[in-house]
Amino acid sequence: MIVQFIKKKSPTILIAVLFIAILLWGNSFNTYKNTFLSSNDGNALLFSLINNYLVKLNLNWITYSLSFILIFLQTLLITRINLKYSVVGTSSFIVAFIFVLLNGALINHNYIHPLLFANLFLISALDSLFNSVSKEKATNIIFNSSLLIAFSSLFFFNYIYLLIFIIITIIITGENIFKEILASILGFITIYLLLFFIYFLITGNLNLFELIKNEFTASYIFEKQTIKEIILWTGIGLVILVSVTFTIQTIMKKKTELRAYYQIFTILFISFLALFIFSKINLHMFFFALSIPATFTISNYLLFEKKNWIANIIFGVFISLIIYNHLIYKMF
Q: Fewer CB in 10 Å around end: N or C, the chain?
């Protein structure tokens, strides 16, 4: 069955991942729908500059190509994390497979989008946080993680609240809690002080204060979902819920470091849920963000579910949802 195939550590899996990515993004190149950022997707500082420049160029293929490249880089980073820390086992490239499928399901956003940039730095920050778990003196590592999270917020401003995620992670997994929390706060402050300094040098004014204030007070329009989208989000949400439930039930059987990694994922899940509820980000953005920890929980479920027939059904539902979304999208 398909699940048994993707469990293998084989070059054919990576070829399959590349083929599926091309197939999923190929439809975007053909249709050219939703090419540029919509007003409901946010307008973070650095991303605004990039998006405005691309709008002026008005070249659709660049937005889709850049989107594909960013997903490709994130897939490499996700795979590297798994191979480096054995989060779901080093015997499989399944995380690359699942990550591409999850992001490919969001075909309405297979174009340049703030979370494509922000998630690149968030994944790098996760790498640093995982590295800090096995280190007695992790202050410098925590500082770097905080820098990366702060930098990601320059592309998607709501990620600024993930400073709380880092602090909670330190409280649960840290050794020298006070120093590490101080390092995380300094990391955040460093990025924004540098931003203010560069902005002042270029413009000669402090209007950046007003821009950041506008980001804090910005509200997103919660768009009414179509029947197609309700089916897609409900189905993917249930698949993620099954994988998270399975992970919670089996986490105590894992080694101490692995338990710490999944604790970090749990905190990240809760953080994204809080962002969705209190920041009023739309469902597309929520699932974009959720795709990072969900990749690992779904992979963990498919690898270690003893009843293969159940795993194949869950994976079949997952694949069916993606095919359904792409077929409906192509029809309309």
A: C
